Amino acid sequence: MRLKILEVSPYFSPYVGGQEQYVRSLGRYLVKKGHQVHVITSKYPKTSSLETIDGMTVERHTVLMRLLRNPISFGYLKIGKISENFDIVHAHNEHSFSSLICALLKENSRFPLVMTNHGQLSFGDSYKDLIEKSYYVTLCKKILSRCDKIVVLSNSDRKKIISLNHKFTSKVLLVPNAIDADRLSGIESSGSVDYTPSAFTFLYVGRIIKRKGLEWLFKAIKIIKNKGEKIKLVLIGDGEDMHYFKNLSQSYSISDLIEFRGAVTNSELVYYYKNSDVFVLPSLSEGLP
């Protein structure tokens, strides 16, 4: 059966992030299986309003503001008008403004709504975490109540969502993150990267932002350094807090052990994975299981 699927995501390529990679990989696979995929997302960063990526139609809408990095766009209201053309509306991240709009529009349009929860959210900041907790037990609970199915990535996420309302139990599906091994094996490792490990190397790949827990990783690196161990930390990715963490590495006297490599190509990323000893994800609220 060939389905028409509307994917609704706060961000999408060329924005770089795990959730964006998830949505793109899922869409690519669905297209490969013969389904029609249309993506509605924010126009951040500024790029084409309409284009085709990996067989998917990608439609982007202007962002009015980013509240706690959450893109606010009234372009999402279009979902109510076009939802009747799709068999499924698949929204991502119940914390997003786009998911809130989907839930509100479902009240009248009654389209099948699937929500994928992309992990728990913690900022490591008492004020932001208080806002998140308040949102989770109010608006978030309301959004999830209007979903027909809720996809979670781990049992921990499943338990937290069910704790909001035990009636959610029957509609929560546990589908762990997957790795497209075939695609990865098809990417040649770039040997042109100016990088030759000279010590035991830790590798971090992700956004350079505070809620990823990099401050705790830096503290750990400082402890290891003080023990006289020869180590190196390589950070792959960009983010709003790049300047903050560069200064933090200097204040901890570990700047000589840390390399900020920024965004890299897929082939370069494979090279870093192959030439590092340990991958580290110090995020305050993400990870497996």
Describe the structure concisely.
With 289 residues, this protein is of the alpha/beta class.
Describe this protein's structure.
- This protein folds into 2 domains: 4-178, Rossmann fold (3-Layer(aba) Sandwich), CATH 3.40.50.2000; 186-279, 3-Layer(aba) Sandwich (Rossmann fold), CATH 3.40.50.
- The chain contains 9 helices and 14 strands.
- With 289 residues, the chain is an alpha/beta fold.
- The strands form 3 sheets. An 8-stranded mixed beta sheet has the order 3-4-2-1-7-8-9-10, with helices on both faces. Strands 13-12-11-14 form a 4-stranded parallel beta sheet, sandwiched between helices. A two-stranded antiparallel ribbon has the order 5-6.
- 35% of the residues lie in helices and 22% in strands.
- α3 packs parallel to α4.
- It has helices at residues 18-32, 78-82, 97-109, 126-145, 155-164, 181-185, 214-226, 242-251, 266-274, and strands at 4-8, 36-42, 50-53, 56-61, 65-67, 70-72, 88-92, 113-116, 149-152, 172-174, 200-205, 231-236, 258-262, 278-279.
